[in-house]
Write a structure and sequence with these properties.
This protein is of the alpha+beta class. Helices cover about 45% and strands about 20% of the residues. Helix 2 packs across helix 3. The two termini are about 115 Å apart. Its EC number is 2.7.13.3.
Length: about 675
């Protein structure tokens, strides 16, 4: 077997794979020489060589020198030798006389070696046959011994059968023990099946079989009490009914749960349940479990007190409450809510019945607000009138509500409170009537005064009366401002009284912006107004009211802008909405003021704005107009950098908002 090779062996070895037999890897002639030489080396144990063996390689002939050298192997029985191949190039041609390899000589020697090996093999085979015959004789003797051993084994089997009978008896005893272990396992299963705090195990004869350490808090128990009747054991429980409960559980197989108090003021939940044997599913006793609920009782008592105080507060405030269970729609109303909605205290009121009491014009707004709260979770806060039973006077209420979540943080209840705000509403009506009355009373003499001043101005346009003309122009400007303020009060009064309507019509927004700018520039503003238009920007809205909003935005920009600074008006139009933005380079607005800027009567309180006239109505009225158009208003501003006021309107026709609002707005 070839172990290792060194150097280039491609000239001497054939390219065969999956074999390590060197003789197989050699060309036939070289293999024959190697075989003969190997046998001679194994016999003589000396180095031997053969030279000039003629071998064909790649259509060429070469002479090969072959040397075999025996190697020492450290006492191992395996024989190693080193085989050396080398090419003999000492002759120029193989055709020269006397240089060709004597193949016949080595072929004969190779044949003789094979014959010797065959002869040796036959001798070994004959020896093996003789050994096999001897083994057969030994086997015959062994079989005779096995027969004798089988007879002995039969005798042993009879003895084993007797032992098996004894083992069957022992196995029966083990089965009995196994049943006892199963019953103990049942005890453990039933023990862990209940809520462990303190436990008693009672059998059918009402004898104590086992108890947990925690039970001694409620019952005076010792280890020596096991096996005693339950009636002989004293407890710390007030109004004890343990024995009666155990008998009911044994007779009916039911589970009894009670809350009991001990003499030391502790509260426990006592659960008495059947003791079930799993082997035959029979009721063989009862388990009594004590769960400490003292802290739960304290919390429950505190909660009851809080609910009582809350109820007193609600009653004192004359506040109504309601609850809607979202999955079933179940509606629960308090007595005060029934009273406010005109129901009798004994009436069963559902959501539909309560909704029917809301005035028709406010009902859809109320339903939409409820729907928005349920969908988005936003706070519910709305004011609406409720029809009275005699249809003479309406009751105004304010309702505030929110969602209550379950353990999975999903909405479960919609709850809220409502209060009677009728007196407040009546006060607002009286206030608005007063404002309207005063405004009308002031407006009449102002209109007359303005007409006289304009008449005087028309007759004073001569050089000698220049001072008179200038004074009249200033007086006329102040009268316009006064008229604007009074008109603002009238608009607020009309808005809160709900007497205003919209006149929806299609118009081009760019044209409206240009007209509004022309009217404002007529007042000789010192600011330059730049318009960035969007082509073909048509919208369905109340043209007059939107023009008043634009007037308010631009007038405020002029008021608060720096002198000679430009004002930019940008109109943008998308597929769904139009947007108007008015930008100035004025004082800027803080974040806190931005949040309240569109509230009624709100004005920024600072030294720089005290000298600017107004009552805080213009932006409030603008926001209300846009709100009733289903649009949006907002502002972006930085202190000292100026401000940009925006409003947006939906492009599609707003049928749902027609005939709901009509406002006359001027700048304030």
């Amino acid at each position: 077997m070839l172990l290792k090779s060194y150097g280039d062996t491609s000239k001497f070895l054939l390219p065969k794979h999956f074999t390590t037999n060197l003789e197989t890897l050699l060309p036939k002639k070289l293999a024959m020489v190697y075989h003969s030489l190997r046998n001679n080396v194994l016999k003589s144990k000396e180095k031997l060589s053969i030279y000039k063996v003629k071998v064909k390689h790649n259509d060429e002939f070469l002479r090969v020198n072959l040397t075999l050298t025996p190697l020492a192997n450290g006492g191992s029985r395996q024989k190693l030798m080193m085989v050396t191949f080398s090419e003999d190039k000492s002759y120029a041609s193989f055709s020269e006389a006397g240089n060709e390899f004597d193949e016949k000589k080595y072929h004969d020697e190779y044949t003789r070696n094979l014959e010797d090996e065959l002869r040796s093999l036959k001798e070994k085979l004959n020896s093996t046959y003789e050994q096999l015959d001897a083994s057969n004789e030994n086997m015959q003797s062994f079989n005779e011994e096995m027969i004798s051993a089988n007879e002995e084994m039969q005798s042993t089997n009879e003895e084993m059968q007797s032992v098996n009978e004894e083992l069957d008896t022992i196995n029966s005893e083990y089965q009995l023990k196994n049943r006892e272990l199963t019953e103990i396992n049942d005890d453990l299963n039933n023990y862990f099946r209940s809520n462990i705090n303190g436990q008693l195990f009672i059998n059918k004869e009402l004898l104590l079989m086992k108890f947990s350490p925690g039970t001694v808090k409620q019952i005076n128990l010792l280890e020596s009490d096991i096996g005693r009747p339950l009636s002989n054991i004293t407890t710390n429980i007030k109004f004890e009914t343990l024995i009666e409960d155990v008998r009911n559980v044994l007779n009916e197989g039911s589970v009894i749960t009670k809350e009991i108090e001990t003499n030391n003021g502790k509260w426990y939940q006592v659960m008495t349940m059947p003791y079930i044997r799993q082997s035959d599913h029979t009721n063989s006793g009862a388990i009594i479990t004590f769960n400490d609920i003292t802290e739960l009782k304290k919390v429950q008592k505190e909660l009851d007190n809080s609910n009582k105080v809350l109820g007193m507060a609600i009653d004192a405030a004359e506040t109504g409450t309601w609850t809607i269970k979202l999955d079933t729609g179940e509606f629960t109303a308090s007595q005060r809510l029934k009273e406010l909605f005109g129901f009798n205290c004994e009436d069963e009121v559902n959501y539909a019945a309560a909704l029917s009491k809301i005035k028709q014009e406010s009902r859809s707004v109320f339903e939409q607000a409820v729907s928005d709260t349920i969908k988005t979770g936003q706070k519910f806060d709305i004011e609406f009138p409720v029809a009275s039973s005699d249809n003479r006077f309406d009751t105004w209420v304010r309702a505030i509500g929110s969602l209550s979540l379950d353990n999975d943080n999903k909405p479960e209840y919609f709850t809220g409170v409502l209060n009677d705000i009728t007196i407040n509403k009546q006060d607002e009506v009286r206030k608005n009537d007063f404002i309207a009355m005063v405004s009308h009373e002031l407006r009449s003499p102002l209109t007359t005064l303005q007409a006289y001043i304009q008449l005087l101005m028309s007759r004073s346009e001569i050089p000698s009366r220049a001072f008179t003309l200038s004074a009249l122009e200033k007086a006329n400007t102040q009268i316009k401002k006064m008229t604007s303020l009074i008109t603002g009060f009238l608009n607020v009064s009309s808005l809160e009284a709900g007497k205003i309507k919209l006149n929806i019509e299609p118009f081009e927004l760019n044209d409206l912006v240009k007209e509004t700018i022309d009217d404002i520039l007529f007042l000789k503003s010192s600011n330059q107004i730049i318009v960035k238009e969007s082509p073909l920007c048509e919208v369905d809205a109340d043209r007059e009211k939107i023009g008043q909003v634009i007037t308010n935005y631009i007038s405020n920009a002029i008021k608060y802008n720096r002198a000679e600074s430009e004002i930019v008006i940008e109109v943008s139009c998308s597929e769904d909405e139009v947007q108007v933005a008015v930008t100035d380079k004025g004082l800027g607005i803080s974040k806190n003021d931005q949040a309240r800027l569109f509230e009624r009567y709100y004005r920024i309180d600072s030294n720089s704005t005290k000298s600017i006239s107004g009552f805080g109505l213009g932006l409030y009225l603008s926001a209300e107009i846009i709100k009733h158009h289903k649009g949006k208003v907002w502002v972006e501003s930085e202190l000292g950098e100026g401000s940009t006021f925006y409003f947006s309107l939906p492009k599609k026709e707003m049928d749902s908002i027609k005939n709901t609002l009509k406002v006359d707005v001027v700048s304030s």
